[in-house]
Amino acid sequence: MSVFISATGTDVGKSFLSSMILAKYGVSLGLKYFKPIQTGDDSDRAAVMNLAGLHESRFLKNYYSFQFAGSPHYASELEGVEIDTDELARHLFSIRDENIIVEGAGGLLVPLTRKTLTIELIRQSEIPLILAAPVSLGSINHTLLSVEAIQNRKINFKGIYFIGTPDKTTEDNIETILEWTGARLLGCFFFNSKEKMSREQFQRECKLRFDPDFILMDAIQ
User: Fold this and answer.
1) Which one of 52, 89, 93, 134 is separated from 171 by 20 to 30 angstroms, measured CA to CA?
2) Can you tell me the distance from the alpha carbon of 47 to that of 103, in angstroms, rounded to the nearest whole number?
3) Domain tally for the chain?
4) What CDD domains would the database entry show (predicted)?
5) Each residue of 104-132: pLDDT tens digit?
6) Residues of the binding site for Mg(2+)
7) 174 CA to centre of own chain
């Protein structure tokens, strides 16, 4: 079963979470990675491949790639390309029963075109969704709005994975979000976002701290 990884916003940790899933379960579950739309020169596909340490054949090519690091609707317009969201939705629907980690671009309400938001692509694809959420100040508002949008569209929502650098609000943020949304807690991974981890450090941390109760594995099967 494919799983769509989205987030409450940009730079929350979608690629980091995708990398952790692939590093720990890529071989045992035969997982592949797919980022349909990439904007900007920095390739999330390459970054995830590096951290996960899996063969290149497990990383599918982007459906669309744009040079400008911005919202897909605007980045595509700058290059005179129209994103065919209907075609992309059909493609995602066709792979929903395969074992693919699909990473979205930005947050749920990021426009893919002037008429279609990312969350509509997820709904049409019928791929179950995992939401990556931050753990610091501001998380409550962003996460509650995201979950409300998910629930309003009756998307198959697997739960929330909290990720990032903790602060004094973190413990209450997580408790409050779960109380208000009724969402399933899939796990938490705290780290210092200012410190870069090598592949070896990353994989060691995954083995030691990531998904110790196998809750997330249950969500992606």
Assistant:
1) 52
2) 13
3) 1
4) DTBS (cd03109)
5) 999 999 999 999 999 999 999 999 999 99
6) 15, 44, 103
7) 18
Does pTM surpass 0.90? yes
Q: Residues within the annotated binding site for ATP?
A: 11-16, 44, 103-106
Q: How many CB atoms lie within 10 A of CB 93?
A: 14
- Distance (Å, rounded) from C-alpha 133 to C-alpha 33? 20
Strand partners, 100: 32
Q: For residue 209, what is the domain's CATH number?
A: 3.40.50.300
Q: Collect all residues with Cβ–Cβ distance below 8 Å to 211 and sequence separation of at least 6.
A: 20, 24, 187, 217
The token pair at 51 is 């951290």
Q: Any idea which residues carry the catalytic annotation?
A: 35
Distance, C-alpha 117 to centroid of its chain: 15
Task: Give the integer Cα–Cα distance in Å for 190 and 209.
Answer: 9
| End-to-end Cα distance, the chain | 6
